[in-house]
């Protein structure tokens, strides 16, 4: 849907709404693409642990992994794991027994920009 | 910057905020440690723990490669101590990440604490 500005000299067809829609759709799609990447971080046996077996994955009963709750939005997309111990697992914690940090969001978020740019480019290229 | 030099610098920066380690022979020292202190030391007040192995990041810039070290710190307030002033000082003095509050997990003996990274 283009915005048309008419003047005596020329008519301007601005497709800014299409452009905005393209980048917002790409944003949503890129965030959705993170879900399997987060999942792969959980199930990959790459996390160092102070006791055998090490390294190990982050799936004990699977409660944390399966608690994943995305909240999509046009310009902000929230990824959340609403369990009591999610932050301690992600950041690690010091205590009677130390919990090593297992930041399962780190690698996927590092990849996010590349994914988003690629998807946005593809959508923008489709606009005439 | 090494864990030891960071520890020394923070011992000065946070000197009035840090709690105390007490060892079995009764000797005391400021509650800041790179790594894990001996298990027979007890801590009171605000404790600061520095992970001994910084994470290395390689950043590419035009015609150059940069290496930064990322030190992971935990601030554990015990008794009635607070970590707020110490966190504010860290954030002002260093390039840090957003401090994250780690809620307590009583069953695992984990007190509420704060996780933050310092970049050098």
Structure explained in plain terms:
The complex is a heterodimer of chains A (128) and B (120). With 128 residues, chain A is mostly helical. Helix content of chain A is 45%, strand content 11%. In chain A, the strands form two sheets. Chain A has a two-stranded antiparallel ribbon with strand order 1-2. In chain A, strands 3-4 form a two-stranded antiparallel ribbon. The mean pLDDT of chain A is 91. Chain B has 120 residues and is of the alpha+beta class. In chain B, the strands form two sheets. In chain B, strands 3, 5, 6, 7, 8, 9 and 10 form a seven-stranded mixed β-sheet that branches. A three-stranded antiparallel β-sheet of chain B has the order 2-1-4, with no helix packed on it. Chains A and B meet through helix 3 of A and strand 7 and strand 9 of B.
**C-alpha Rg of chain B (nearest Å):** 15 Å
Alpha-beta content class of chain B: alpha+beta
Q: Rg of chain A from C-alpha positions?
A: 21 Å
Low-confidence stretches of chain B: none
The share of residues in extended strands of chain A comes to 5-15%
Which ranges of chain A are low-confidence, i.e. pLDDT below 50, for 5 or more consecutive residues? none
> Hey, roughly how much beta strand do the residues of chain B contain?
35-45%
Global morphology of chain B: globular
Our measurement of the CA-to-CA distance between the termini of chain A, rounded to an integer number of angstroms, reads 11 Å
Throw out a few tags for this protein.
heterodimer; A: 128 residues; mainly alpha; elongated; B: 120 residues; alpha+beta; globular
Fold blueprint:
The complex is a heterodimer of chains A (128) and B (120).
Chain A: E1 3-6, E2 11-14, H1 16-43, H2 63-66, E3 69-71, E4 78-80, H3 86-91, H4 106-125
Antiparallel strand pairs in A: 1-2, 3-4
Chain B: H1 3-13, E1 20-22, E2 28-30, E3 32-34, E4 42-44, E5 46-50, E6 55-61, E7 64-77, H2 84-93, E8 95-96, E9 100-102, E10 113-119
Parallel strand pairs in B: 3-5
Antiparallel strand pairs in B: 1-2, 1-4, 5-7, 6-7, 7-10, 8-10, 9-10
């Amino acid at each position: 849907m283009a915005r048309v500005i008419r003047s005596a000299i020329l008519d301007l067809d601005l497709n800014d709404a299409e452009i905005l829609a393209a980048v917002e759709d790409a944003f949503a799609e890129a965030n959705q693409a993170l879900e399997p990447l987060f999942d792969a971080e959980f199930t990959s046996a790459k996390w160092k642990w102070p006791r055998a077996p090490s390294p190990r994955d982050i799936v004990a009963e699977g409660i944390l992994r399966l608690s994943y709750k995305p909240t999509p939005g046009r310009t902000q997309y929230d990824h959340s794991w609403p369990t009591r111990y999610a932050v301690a697992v992600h950041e690690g914690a010091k205590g009677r027994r130390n919990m090593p940090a297992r930041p399962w969001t780190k690698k996927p978020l590092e990849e996010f920009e590349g994914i988003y740019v690629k998807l946005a480019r593809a959508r923008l290229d489709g606009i005439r | 910057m090494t864990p030891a030099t960071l520890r020394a610098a923070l011992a000065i920066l946070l000197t009035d905020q840090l709690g105390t380690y007490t060892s079995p022979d009764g000797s005391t020292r400021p509650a800041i440690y790179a790594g894990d202190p001996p298990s027979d030391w007890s801590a009171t007040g605000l404790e600061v723990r520095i992970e001994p192995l910084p994470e290395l990041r390689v950043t590419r810039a035009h015609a150059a490669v940069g290496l930064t070290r990322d030190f992971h710190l935990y601030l554990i307030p015990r008794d009635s101590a607070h970590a707020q002033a110490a966190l504010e000082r860290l954030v002002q003095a260093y390039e840090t990440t957003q401090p994250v509050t780690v809620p307590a997990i009583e069953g695992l003996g984990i007190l509420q604490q704060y996780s933050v990274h310092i970049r050098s």
